[in-house]
Amino acid sequence: MTGRIHDAETGAELWEQNSGVPMQPASVNKVLTTAAALLTLDRNARLATTVLAVDSQPGLVVLKGGGDTTLSAAPEDTDTWYKGAARISDLAEQVRNTGMTVTAVRVDTSAYSGPTMAPGWDPADIEGGDIAPMEPVMLDGGRIQPTTVESRRSTRRPSTRAGPWPPPSRWIRHR
Length: 175
Hints:
GO terms for molecular function: serine-type carboxypeptidase activity. The protein has 175 residues and is an alpha/beta fold.
């Protein structure tokens, strides 16, 4: 972060940090990234999170993340920060409807490679609610309390975040 703060009445400098270093505001980066995405990507494409049965291991299902950072563990009748987000309970119901007896669930996060945090991100900002480690499937964007705007993010892996609604952290293991 760079900048300079002056007292409005006296003009005295109260704080300064690298004020001579030009920086691009994050909001500008978001607009440019969105514009590039709209020009490049199929606007009708959707990120899919799927559940797969493993033939060689009866009872094992794999939650395969395809980029959905908003999958919610909240009950259907609960509004969350992500309006209209897909629910993990819907995926569980689809598996139940197959008649399969599930004994284990694993999460496949292999769709993304590399670090989960961008260079310059401070891990201390996770609990402040501004950022979360990025994974191809995240429960409620890593929010601990997904019904509130100012929710802190979990320092656990977002794909297995233990939130207020069980059971994700108890039954998901990473592959």
